[in-house]
Backbone:
C-alpha cells in the first residue's frame, strides 16, 4: 500500500535531485530517506529512482507517481484542513429533524445559540414525527433527531444516544364557553393567551367529540381514555396544532395537547384544563453513538439541552 509520507519523500527527492538533499529538506537522515524510498518501491512493485553517483533520476514509473503525488498530497492537505476546521467548530454541518412543536419552540433558541457560538457551523432542518424521525437517524438521513415518547416505550431507542430534554404535560383544551370552562378566571385575551380553567377527570369528557393529533398522540389519547373507562369519539384528526385550536374554538370538539404545542400557537377562544390522571411525554434529542463524538453534533445536543432548561 502506498503511503502519503512515502509520496512526500519521493516528491522531495525528485525536486532536490538527491537523497542527501532531500534529507536536509525534510529534516531527517539520508538513510531514512533511502529506507522510505525502498518501502515505496516495494509497494509500487517497480523501481522509481535510478541513482548515478550522487545524483538521482526518476524512472518512467517514478515520473508518473510524482505527477499524481502532487494532486494526492494537495487533496490530503485540503482534507486535513477541513477536518481540523470541523473539529474546531470553525466549519461543519448538522442535519436536524424535529417534530413540529419542537421546531417552533426548542429548535430556534438552540440554533440561534449554536450560530452565535460557532458561526461556521451549518444546520439544516426538516420535520418528522417519531418513530419516523428515529428511522431517518438510523438510515443516515439526519444527524440529530428531536423526538418524544410516552411511558412504556423506552426500548425503541436502545441503540441510540438519548439526551433527555424535558417532560411535557398534556392538557385538556375546551371552547371558552364549554360547561367545564366556568372555573377559569377569564378568557383568552387579544394576544392569544388562554386561562387554565381548573382540574377535571378525563372521564368528565367521555361524551364529548374529540379532535386528535398526530398518530402517536392519537394512540396515547385513546389509551388514556380507555384506562378511564371510555373510548373517545374522534371526529377530527390533524397534525396541525393551530387547526386543532381552531376546531376546538369553533365548538367542534375537545382535545388534549402537549403544553409545548400550546406555546407554539395562539390559543384564542379556548380554555385549558389540567386533566387527571395526568399524561406526560418525554422530549429527547437522539443521535447515533458514533455521531455523538462529532463536535458539531455534540454542540447541537448541548444547545438543545440548554434551550429546554430555559
Residues:
Amino acid at each position: 500500500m502506498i503511503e502519503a509520507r512515502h509520496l512526500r519523500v519521493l516528491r522531495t527527492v525528485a525536486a532536490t535531485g538527491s537523497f542527501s538533499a532531500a534529507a536536509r529538506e525534510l529534516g531527517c537522515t539520508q538513510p531514512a530517506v533511502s529506507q522510505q524510498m525502498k518501502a515505496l518501491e516495494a509497494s509500487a512493485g517497480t523501481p522509481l529512482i535510478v541513482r548515478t553517483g550522487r545524483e538521482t533520476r526518476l524512472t518512467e514509473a517514478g515520473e508518473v507517481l510524482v505527477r499524481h503525488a502532487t494532486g494526492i498530497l494537495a487533496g490530503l492537505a485540503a482534507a486535513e484542513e477541513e477536518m481540523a476546521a470541523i473539529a474546531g467548530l470553525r466549519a461543519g454541518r448538522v442535519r436536524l429533524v424535529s417534530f413540529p412543536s419542537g421546531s417552533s419552540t426548542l429548535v430556534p433558541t438552540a440554533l440561534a445559540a449554536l450560530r452565535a457560538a460557532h458561526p461556521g457551523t451549518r444546520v439544516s432542518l426538516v420535520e418528522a414525527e417519531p418513530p419516523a424521525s428515529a428511522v431517518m437517524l438510523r438510515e443516515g438521513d439526519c444527524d440529530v433527531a428531536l423526538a418524544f415518547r410516552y411511558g412504556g416505550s423506552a426500548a425503541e431507542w436502545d441503540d441510540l444516544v438519548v439526551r433527555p430534554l424535558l417532560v411535557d404535560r398534556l392538557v385538556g383544551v375546551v371552547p371558552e364557553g364549554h360547561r367545564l370552562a366556568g372555573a377559569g378566571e377569564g378568557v383568552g385575551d387579544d394576544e392569544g393567551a388562554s386561562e387554565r380553567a381548573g382540574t377535571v377527570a378525563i372521564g368528565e369528557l367521555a361524551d364529548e367529540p374529540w379532535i386528535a393529533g398526530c398518530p402517536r398522540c392519537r394512540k396515547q389519547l385513546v389509551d388514556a381514555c380507555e384506562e378511564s373507562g371510555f373510548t373517545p369519539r374522534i371526529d377530527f384528526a390533524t397534525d396541525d396544532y393551530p387547526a386543532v385550536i381552531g376546531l376546538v374554538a369553533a365548538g367542534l370538539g375537545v382535545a388534549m395537547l402537549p403544553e409545548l404545542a400550546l406555546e407554539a400557537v395562539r390559543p384564542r377562544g379556548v380554555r385549558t384544563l389540567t386533566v387527571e390522571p395526568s399524561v406526560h411525554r418525554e422530549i429527547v434529542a437522539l443521535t447515533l453513538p458514533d455521531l455523538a463524538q462529532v463536535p458539531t453534533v455534540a454542540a447541537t445536543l448541548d444547545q438543545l439541552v440548554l434551550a429546554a432548561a430555559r
Remarks:
- The first strand starts at residue 49 and ends at 52.
- The radius of gyration is 31 Å.
